[in-house]
Structure formats: C-alpha cells, structure tokens
Specification:
Length: 142
C-alpha cells in the first residue's frame, strides 16, 4: 500500500514542479492590450484570413496584421500588442484575452484531477493485491 501511495505523491509533486505547461496551460505573453480599429476586414470564407488594424501606442499610430476574420470596417476590437514595436512596417498582433483570470482556475483543477487519478490507480492496485486468488474448479474425469 505504501508503494502506490508514494508513487502517487511523487507524480503529483513532479507535476506541480513541472509547471503549468505540463497540464496544457500556456501563459503566452500577449503584450499590452490596446484598442484597435479594423481598417481592412477579411471574409471568413478563405483559410488563413488576415485583417489589417490601426492602433495608437504612446501617441504614435501603427498598422498591424491580425489573424482573424468577420470584423466590420471601422469596428473597434482589443488586441495584444508586443512590448517592443518596430518604427516602420506592419506589426503582428493577436486578439486580446477576453477571459482574463480564467487561466487561474485551470491549473489547480488539472492538478486536482491528477491527484484523483493517482488515488484511483493506487486504490485499484491495493484492491488487486488484497484480493486472494480463487482456486479454479477441477475438471471431473469420468
């Protein structure tokens, strides 16, 4: 019983130390959220649609490309802008995270599910080892 319990505790500890990437949670840095205006919308009927947006950072207007579609001309959207902006050329931007704070609950939930899985596996091993083998019936010879 001690070996499966120790193995489960070791797996949970290693998962905790490995960080959020192990449980499929990535903390991508989207940059500073900025409000942008769509200047060139893209229809959604083509794959890899790219829209052009215009945004202002520190009093300077920049053009950006957004991988997305379905926005209207002049529509205002929130985008994530990189911390360092080039002086010229289009900047690759991403849509800002509209569900801020939701990633905070995913790691503890994933870790709780991992603990439950380790506990279930340990209990299965315990029950298999605890149950005595049943004797097989002997075939009658006539």
């Amino acid at each position: 019983m001690a070996i499966p319990a120790a193995a489960g505790v070791l797996v949970v500890l290693l998962a905790w130390l490995a960080g959020p990437g192990l449980l499929g949670i990535a903390n991508d840095d989207l940059g500073a959220p900025v409000q942008a205006e769509v200047t060139k919308p893209a229809p959604c009927d083509k794959p890899d649609a790219v829209e052009t947006v215009r945004f202002t950072v520190a009093g300077k207007t920049h053009e950006g490309t957004l991988n997305g579609c379905g926005h209207g001309q002049g529509e205002r959207i929130d985008v994530g802008v990189p911390e360092v902006l080039p002086d010229q050329g289009a900047v690759a931007v991403r849509e800002a995270d509209t569900s801020a704070g939701s990633s905070d609950a995913r790691r503890p939930l994933g870790l709780a599910l991992l603990v439950f899985a380790c506990f279930s596996g340990g209990m299965y091993v315990y029950l298999v080892l605890r149950t005595p083998p049943r004797p097989r019936p002997v075939a009658k010879v006539s």
